[in-house]
């Protein structure tokens, strides 16, 4: 199975090199790496010259993380798509474990798994989930249990459910998990698959306090859209 690693990047600074290195260190070797430069003011090509095997695409304007991932997905053709943000680190066994899971359970549409938070690139916290969890549509409608950097998705599933909704700059990943869960099983892997980087004053939209209201509104809209597609009526959504 060919895996396409998709990395959207907007002014990632020095962290992009670490993200790329973590991909190049994968024990599973049948993969490609594509970096989508979302019209950064930084010169990402200077970093990428050190990694000639990495495909580079630059957006003509800043279009957001979901739309940037779509650019990368359309530009590749592998069987599986594995996501990583430009300031995060992929665990060396992520692809190996994920591919083995797809081979063992061919009906699943997506894999995800456990992760650790890396604070300021210095402090590594304990694994986020202490125990295995079940992820399906019902659980996702209560809470987003999926961390995007842990995911690997079948391309055929994206052909069916569609790509990332480009109107969402925040919670676009949650919208994708919900749409996949409506039609396909999601397999949670209780192993560390990546390290989620928390950098104060970094570029992550979900870490910006002024984006909190937009995040809440998007989540509510995504949930209602899913209910509408499935014909689910609720009296009260808590």
Beta fraction: 15-25%
The global form is globular
CATH class: Alpha Beta
Please, how many domains? 1
What is the number of strand segments?
Answer: 9
Whole-number radius of gyration?
A: 17 Å
**Which structural class fits the helix and strand makeup?**
alpha/beta
Model regions low in confidence, pLDDT < 50 over at least 5 residues = none
Helix residue percentage: 25-40%
Q: How far apart lie the N and C ends?
A: 41 Å
How would you summarize this macromolecular structure in one to three sentences?
Helix content is 32%, strand content 22%. The chain contains eight helices and nine strands.
In words, what does this structure look like?
- There is one protein chain.
- The protein has 238 residues and is of the alpha/beta class.
- It has a single domain, classed as Spore Coat Polysaccharide Biosynthesis Protein SpsA, Chain A, CATH 3.90.550.10.
- Helices cover 32% and strands 22% of the residues.
- It contains eight helices and nine strands.
- It has helices at residues 15-24, 44-48, 65-74, 94-104, 137-140, 155-161, 172-181, 212-230; strands at residues 3-9, 31-37, 55-58, 80-83, 89-90, 110-119, 123-124, 152-154, 186-198.
- β1 (3-9), α1 and β2 (31-37) form a beta-alpha-beta unit.
- The mean pLDDT is 94.
What are the SSEs and their pairings?
Blueprint: E1 3-9, H1 15-24, E2 31-37, H2 44-48, E3 55-58, H3 65-74, E4 80-83, E5 89-90, H4 94-104, E6 110-119, E7 123-124, H5 137-140, E8 152-154, H6 155-161, H7 172-181, E9 186-198, H8 212-230
Parallel strand pairs: 1-2, 1-4, 2-3, 6-9
Antiparallel strand pairs: 4-8, 5-9, 6-7, 6-8
């Amino acid at each position: 199975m060919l895996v396409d690693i998709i990395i959207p990047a907007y002014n990632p600074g020095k962290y992009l090199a670490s993200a790329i290195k973590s991909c190049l260190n994968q024990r599973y070797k049948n993969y490609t790496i594509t970096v989508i430069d979302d019209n950064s003011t930084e010169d990402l090509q200077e970093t990428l010259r050190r990694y000639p095997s990495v495909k580079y695409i630059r957006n003509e304007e800043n279009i957001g993380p979901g739309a940037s991932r779509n650019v990368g997905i359309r530009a590749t053709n592998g069987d599986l798509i594995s996501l990583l943000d430009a300031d995060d680190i992929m665990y060396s066994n992520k692809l190996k474990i994920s591919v083995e899971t797809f081979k063992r359970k061919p009906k699943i549409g997506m894999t995800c798994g456990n992760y650790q938070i890396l604070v300021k690139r210095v402090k590594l916290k304990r694994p986020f989930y202490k125990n295995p969890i079940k992820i399906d549509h019902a659980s996702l409608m209560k809470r987003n249990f999926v961390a995007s950097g842990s995911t690997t998705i079948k391309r055929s599933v994206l052909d069916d459910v569609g790509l990332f909704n480009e109107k969402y700059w925040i919670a676009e990943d949650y919208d994708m998990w919900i749409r996949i869960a409506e039609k396909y099983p999601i397999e949670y892997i209780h192993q560390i698959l990546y390290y989620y980087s928390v950098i104060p004053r970094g570029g992550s939209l979900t870490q910006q306090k002024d984006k909190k209201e937009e995040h809440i509104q998007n989540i509510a809209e995504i949930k209602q859209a899913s209910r509408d597609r499935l014909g689910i009526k609720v009296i009260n959504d808590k």
